[in-house]
Design a protein that fits this description.
The structure holds 2 protein chains of 2 kinds. Chain A contains 11 helices and 50 strands. By secondary structure, chain A is mainly beta. Chain A has 2 domains: about 80 residues, Carboxypeptidase-like, regulatory domain (Immunoglobulin-like, Sandwich), CATH 2.60.40.1120; about 650 residues, Maltoporin, Chain A (Beta Barrel), CATH 2.40.170. In chain A, the strands form 10 sheets. Chain A has a 22-stranded antiparallel beta barrel. Chain A has a 5-stranded mixed sheet with strand order 10-17-18-13-14. In chain A, strand 32 and strand 33 form a beta hairpin. In chain A, helix 9 packs antiparallel against helix 10. The longest helix of chain A is centred in the N-terminal third of the chain and has 17 residues. By secondary structure, chain B is α+β, with helices and mostly antiparallel strands. In chain B, the strands form 4 sheets. A 4-stranded mixed sheet of chain B has the order 5-4-3-12. In chain B, strands 2-8 form a two-stranded antiparallel ribbon. The chains are: A mainly beta, B alpha+beta. The interface between A and B is large, with 112 and 100 residues. Strand 32 of chain A pairs antiparallel with strand 1 of chain B, so a sheet runs across the interface.
Chain lengths: ~950, ~450
């Protein structure tokens, strides 16, 4: 009851803010139309308000509006619409009569009123946004190039959002680094919504020899995406509560368009190309055992893997309905044999206004995805490991055995949502939505009979992994807009959100197959593993938001959210997350130079958090483990009853400016700090729980950074236009607290969470020289007694430069260069090569040392260098990993106008283009790729390169034909 | 309008309590059970099997790694890639050696589960039989078995720490952190081997021995004899010959089955670790050349009559990383099945302990004891018993068990009069002759 009263109190306080107004005595009615000033087209969905009152309405599909009970006399009507300048017109309202008016809105060429999604699907004109929201015009990008997955649309395009592929596998894991990663708890990944559906963003490892998993984002078709909005931190994402700690990615799919005349656009889009690796992906000068050049041998593994993608889409609309439907198939072979993808996507989106006051949108996407994964990231059975390492190539596992491993994941996935928006009375909008993400994923991995595999022998092995995941989210909101006094407008919002995840897994392994012609798991004589898992988790939240706008110049918003969840911690009943933001449009003041069409400083504060796992608050749980003595109770998980949710707070300040309709500048500084961070703390063996980790509120981390965005059109002529978008971000973090724990290491004892150090810093002993005996003979490296910070895996500086050059209206050349600086990678591949005698530099130095005379300067110099290649010291293999990648380059020609002029029957659009991805990389890193991480995209191990397939170069020819 | 908005607002407020209960109304996990759910007498078998399983997974890993660290096994073979194993062979072990981590995970949990049994016994003691208490009260045989298991394996866990692990290269011992709950930050101090041996002895002799019945499964008195053999070994490892002799006199006798760790004949959890380290699954380590080259080991018999107790199977020829010489690699053939059991205590070991004591104290008939052991494998008797002969016999008899490492240490430390080239410590004087307590402990234990 106390909780209820507390919640009620907050809401009552909100009600007090609403400032209910009273109506005047003599009134009339105003009817009118809102139209585009230039074209005369009606504008459905525009808002019209009577200034100084709470009377307002939205235009219907014909652009018509009706305002009732308008006080008689001269009134000012204020009309606004996304993408247009807000306009006020005077109207003389007659008592007990209908006054007609037409309002013309001028298009805002600077796109000030471009919609940005600021939270829970709430749309705000860009000119009114009070937090920094990154936007990717995905529809435009995918017209120019072919993208494998949604992450490729984001990387390099948004300041402060760095997207790392964990490997070059088709469908490989993806890690988002949003502002360096938010709090310390959780997986550091943003919540991802598609058309209002909170989707599964896990990395699925299943059975794997290495650390690589399959990204669930690989199920999405980038060609269906219209736009992506990214709320980067708690200041903007507080309304998402516990899901917003690491930012929120809001994906909107395509939707067709309303039209007075029914439209029907049929389009075919095809892409044809290949994946490939460079000739020197693994540097022959780096990997060489003296007899066989291991780098060349590994490079010979690669092939040119074909890509083809076909999409047919249908879109259009009428006055009250718009729709988009597509079917898409992408088939792709990776650069390494046994790596491929075959994805089919179906999408149907539909939006309608059955009545003026009601809009309904349904969005449904289905995916059938088949992904074949090669064996990598381990030194035993992967082709890269068996060529680069070992006393001789394929020392442990024969190449035929490796390339006969069949590892395939088959996915069936449905992501759908329904959203209804109802305006029962003027200014009040009720919104309800429900989302459902259901996926069924099955992995089959077969090591066939007749090939020798370590630990298995020659009788084969079969692994089967099933994962069924269901996620439901239901959202409801009520929004009421009104005018408190002349010039002071308010919008009140209340709402609630409920989410549920139900996850079931099962898996089995059998060995000792008698034949290779029957491969079902039951045919194995040695049925070695059979198990299952289950997770059921729910969260709920209510929230309230109050926004005030004074004279269209000052914008203030306050929010409060209360969350409950299945797992909050034993002593915690709920969590409250506040946020507040303020912005002022300086360009509205007289002192502002006319060159500014937008000049807006803004500040924002918000709090979010991360929740414990479902059983994290339970001290001890036991599982059943089989042994030769029978199934017995062993440690299942350890937990912490004292646990409370992590809290992440962020302060953000920035300024947005649009200059002369040709330049836009955005600068944001943020400072975030997390406390009570939940860290899975490795426990000492002596506790009895050394195989597990203890979730603990032992962490605190501070992060701060600067994000800059610059958009400009330096050339704007009839036949030449050049658009540039430049983004840059600097981020730094420092762990401020690890409680009583001195340091928390990853499983390889090299990445650390430690007070005073950057998040996941490389912390290990450093070799500082060589040691010699009394005769001057080299006896080994001399290393620091204590661990040192030798780098960190998260880039301090990231940036992207996107350009688009349009020539003669129809020819465009566009590209994206992406840079990351100030980070390191642990080159464990090179370290193992030193163990195995395939590290060319170490071999050369060893030979040279043997030729020199002990005690001489030359000898000591070589010994010093040799000491720094000693594989017993991991610190020797931490390398700077700065890079510049030519991420995209495309050339397109739009024949549409030619086709239309030629009057080719039925054809409306013809575009042809060539695009390339990962064209080249400039880096000093000696490994194959400075971006990858052998441990996948979720592990505490970060920036570690161990026999991981690098990201490939992709080249495609793209054809679009519209009817 | 105002009314409608108020209704919506009120609905949200009223939904609060419903929402709170809704999020808690979820299905429990199916793959784990709460700690409290096991606090009943009918879970005793399940709990005991868990401890025994960890005994097995501790014994195989520890035995393998210490066999490589000793001079019994060398790093090599067709699947030899683990640098961690190479470090064992070189006795130059990094503190981040994650193979040692693997064995310490098992040993740590083994110790905890054994001690946890004792605490749980107290809880069950306080329950009414209808609520899950002992049906037979304090005399309930299941209660006795649970207490025996707790003390027996609690003692063995401490023995493992003492015999095989160390803080520094030549400073043996372990660490035990006794916590109120997993979140308790208390961490134990380093405990030298001598104290751990003492603790193990107390648990075995004072607590397990009085409860000995037939819990270990080979007839009346068997439990007691197993415990006495283990106690004898603990004393012998410390150089306490008289005490060792006293225990060994009551130890396992000819005809007793070996006390073994049991494994599952399947891949993954529960299988014998040797299978994939030096067995049919994968060969990362092979037997030292003396086992197939040295006449003392072959008894001059080209047909290798020792194959009964030292079964070897040719694997591959390779260049040994330490000497560079080409070596014929023979993997062990004792554990050719995943489910092959591993001896922990045998009457043969008990006899050889007595023989050693007699040799060192010039008493008794050590040759007869040695020849009894040999005869049990169908081998001819020897004509002379010396300490060199004795340690050669121990080397062969205790093949793969890891005890050879302790023999090498005590020969060196105690100055036992044998050929140091043959039986002494084979690596640098300051090299690791214990498995190190690795960073996994040190990073979370301020006492290190």
């Amino acid at each position: 009851m106390d909780k209820m009263l507390t919640g009620a109190g907050v809401v009552v306080a909100l009600v007090a803010l609403l400032g209910w107004s009273t109506a005047a005595a003599q009134t009339g009615t105003v009817e009118g139309t809102v139209i585009d000033a230039e074209t005369g087209e009606t504008l459905p969905g525009a808002n019209v308000l009577v200034a100084g009152t709470d009377i307002g309405a939205a235009t219907n599909v014909d652009g018509l509006f009706t305002l009732s009970d308008v006080p008689a006399g001269e009134q000012s009507l204020r009309a606004s619409f996304v993408g247009y300048f807000e306009t006020e017109v005077a109207v003389d309202v007659e008592a007990d009569a209908v006054t007609e008016v037409t309002i013309e809105l001028e298009e805002d060429l600077a796109d000030l009123d471009e919609v940005v999604v600021t939270g829970l699907g709430l749309q705000r004109d860009r000119g009114q946004a009070q937090v920094s929201v990154g936007r990717v015009d995905a529809g435009d990008l995918s017209e120019r190039a072919s993208f494998q997955d949604v992450s490729q649309l984001i990387g390099g395009n948004v300041a402060g959002v760095n997207v790392q592929a964990a490997s070059g596998n088709v469908g490989g894991g993806i890690r988002f680094n949003v502002r360096g990663g938010g709090g310390l708890g959780g997986d550091g990944q943003p919540a991802i919504y598609i058309d209002g559906v909170r989707i599964d963003n896990a990395e699925i490892a299943g059975f794997g020899g290495g650390g690589q998993g399959i990204s669930t984002l690989a199920d999405l078709n980038p060609n269906d995406i219209e736009s992506i909005d990214i709320v980067r931190g708690p200041a903007g994402a507080a309304i998402y509560g516990t899901e917003g700690a690491n930012g929120v990615v809001l994906i909107t799919t395509k939707s067709g368009s309303f039209s007075a005349e029914p439209t029907f656009d049929l389009q075919y889009r095809g892409s044809f190309g290949f994946n490939e690796q460079g000739d020197q992906t693994f540097d022959p000068d780096v990997f060489d055992d003296g007899e066989i050049n291991r780098g060349d041998l590994a490079n010979d593994l690669f092939r040119r893997g074909g890509i083809q993608q076909h999409q047919v889409s249908l879109s259009g609309g009428t006055e009250s309905v718009r729709y988009y439907a597509s079917i898409d198939n992408r088939q792709e072979d990776g650069a390494l044999p046994r790596n491929s993808g075959d994805r089919t996507n179906l999408r149907a989106n539909f939006e309608a206004f059955p009545i003026d006051e009601l809009s309904v949108r349904a969005s449904a996407g289905y995916t059938a995805n088949v992904l074949n994964r090669p064996e990598n990231d381990n030194s035993i059975q992967g082709a890269i490991g068996e060529t680069l390492l070992g006393p001789e190539p394929y020392f442990i596992t024969d190449s035929l055995a490796i390339f006969n491993i069949d590892d395939v994941q088959r996915v069936n996935r449905f992501v759908g949502s329904v959203r209804a928006e109802y305006t029962p009375v003027d200014n009040l909008t009720l919104t309800g939505s429900a989302g459902y993400d259901a996926s069924s994923r099955r992995q089959d991995r077969t090591r066939p009979v007749g090939f020798a595999y370590p630990g298995i022998g020659t009788s084969g092995e079969r692994n089967v992994f099933n994962r069924n995941n269901e996620q439901i989210n239901v959202d409801g909101q009520a929004q009421y807009a009104y005018e408190i006094t002349q010039g002071l407008r308010a919008t009140s919002l209340i709402g609630g959100q409920f989410t549920q995840q139900t996850l079931r897994t099962s898996f089995g392994t059998a060995q000792e197959f008698a034949t290779d012609v029957i491969t079902n798991i039951g045919a194995g004589d040695d049925f070695t593993t059979l198990n299952e898992g289950f997770l059921n988790e729910r969260t709920g939240g209510i929230f309230a938001q109050q926004e005030l706008v004074l004279d269209d110049t000052y914008f203030v918003t306050g929010q409060l959210r209360r969350d409950v969840a299945t797992a909050l911690g034993e002593g915690v009943t709920d969590v409250w997350y506040p946020s507040a933001s303020f912005a002022v449009r300086l360009d509205q003041f007289d002192f502002s130079p006319d060159v500014f069409t937008l000049l807006r400083p803004r500040v924002a504060y918000g709090a979010t958090g991360n929740l414990p796992g479902v059983v994290d608050g339970e001290a001890l749980r036991f599982n059943a483990r089989a042994s030769g003595f029978g199934a017995g109770a062993t440690i299942g998980s350890v937990g912490n009853p004292q646990l409370v949710p992590e809290r992440v707070q962020e302060f953000e300040a920035g300024v947005d400016a649009d200059i002369l309709d040709r330049y836009s500048v955005e600068a944001t500084y943020y400072y975030s700090f997390a406390n009570n961070s939940i860290i899975d703390q490795p426990l000492a063996f002596s506790t009895g729980f050394g195989g597990g980790t203890l979730p603990s509120n032992v962490g605190g981390v501070e992060s701060q950074g600067v994000e800059l965005g610059l958009g400009l059109t330096p050339i704007l002529q009839e036949d030449v236009r050049l658009d540039l978008n430049l983004n840059y971000a600097y981020q730094t973090s420092e762990v401020t607290d690890t409680g009583e724990v001195e340091a928390i290491f990853d499983g390889f004892d090299i990445n650390v969470i430690k007070e005073g150090l950057p998040r996941s810093a490389f912390f290990i002993e450093e070799v500082i020289g060589a040691q010699f005996d009394d005769q001057g003979v080299y006896i080994g490296p001399e290393a620091t007694a204590e661990r040192q910070v030798l780098g960190q895996p998260i880039p301090e500086h990231t940036g992207g430069l996107r350009f688009n050059l349009t020539l003669f209206q129809n020819l465009s050349v566009s590209g994206l260069a992406e840079v990351a600086l100030g980070h390191q990678v642990y080159n464990n591949t090179l370290r193992f090569a030193a163990f195995d005698g395939t590290n060319a530099e170490r071999n050369r130095l060893s030979t040279q040392l043997a030729e020199e005379t002990p005690g001489t300067a030359e000898y000591e110099q070589v010994a010093e260098a040799l000491a720094r290649t000693n594989p017993l010291f991991q610190g020797n293999f931490i390398e700077d990993a700065d890079y510049l990648k030519m991420r995209e380059l495309s050339v397109n020609y739009d024949f549409s106008s030619l086709v239309r002029e030629a009057g080719i029957a039925g054809l409306s659009t013809v575009r042809l283009g060539v695009s390339a991805r990962n064209l080249f990389t400039i880096t000093g890193y000696s490994g194959a790729d400075p971006e990858i991480n052998f441990a996948g995209s979720r592990s505490l191990s970060r920036g570690q390169d161990f026999l991981t397939l690098p990201t490939p170069r992709q080249v495609t020819l793209n054809v679009t034909v519209g009817f | 309008m105002r009314t409608l908005f108020t209704i919506v607002l009120a609905a949200v407020v009223l939904a609060l309590p419903a929402c709170d209960s809704l999020v808690e109304d979820v299905d429990d996990p199916i793959d784990t059970a709460s700690d409290e759910a096991l606090n009943t007498a009918d879970q005793a078998d399940f709990l005991i099997s868990g401890v025994e399983g960890r005994f097995a997974s501790t014994h195989d890993r520890t035995g393998l790694f210490t066999s490589i660290l000793s001079d019994q096994f060398i790093f090599g073979g067709s699947g030899a890639t683990f640098p961690t194993y190479q470090q064992f062979d070189a006795a130059d072990i990094n503190l981040d050696n994650n193979s040692v981590d693997g064995s310490l995970v098992q040993l740590g949990e083994y110790r905890f589960l054994a001690d946890n049994l004792l605490e749980r016994a107290d809880i069950i003691d306080g329950l009414d039989p209808e609520e899950g208490g002992w049906p037979g009260g304090e005399a309930d045989p299941d209660r006795e078995r649970l207490l025996f298991t707790a003390h027996f394996h609690g003692g063995l866990a401490r023995y493992f720490w003492a015999a095989f692990f160390g803080r520094d290269a030549q400073e043996g011992g372990g660490v035990i952190s006794e916590l109120e709950s997993p979140e308790d930050p208390t961490r134990g101090d380093f405990i030298p081997s001598a104290e751990l041996y003492q603790d193990a002895t107390q648990r075995l002799e004072d607590e397990a021995l009085p409860r000995a019945a037939n819990f270990l499964g080979d007839g009346e008195g068997y439990d007691s004899r197993v415990i006495h053999t283990i106690l004898a070994r603990i004393e012998l490892f410390q150089g306490n010959l008289d005490a060792a002799a006293s225990y060994a006199e009551s130890g396992l006798i000819e005809g007793d089955a070996p006390f073994q760790a049991q494994y599952l004949d399947r891949t993954g959890g529960g299988a014998n670790f040797w299978f994939n380290a030096s067995g049919p699954g994968r060969v990362q380590t092979v037997a030292a050349p003396r086992f197939f080259e040295d006449e003392d080991y072959l008894d001059g018999d080209v047909d290798n009559p020792e194959s009964a107790r030292i079964p070897l199977i040719f694997n591959t020829t390779f260049n040994y990383f330490i000497t560079g010489e080409e070596i014929e690699g023979y993997r062990q053939g004792r554990y050719n099945e995943r489910g092959a059991s591993i001896d922990f205590a045998t009457w043969q070991e008990n006899e050889l302990m007595l023989a050693e004591i007699e040799l060192r104290q010039n008493t008794g008939d050590p040759l007869a004891r040695i020849n009894d052991v040999r005869a049990s494998h169908g081998l001819d008797g020897l004509g002379e018993a010396t300490l060199d002969v004795l340690f050669t016999e121990r080397d062969k008899e205790l093949f793969t068990l890891g005890y050879r490492l302790v023999d090498q240490r005590r020969i060196t430390e105690e100055g036992i009069d044998v050929d140091p080239e043959l039986h002494g410590w084979h690596r640098a004087p300051d090299a690791w002759w214990y498995l190190p307590i690795t960073l996994g402990e040190r990073n979370d234990n301020p006492n290190f």
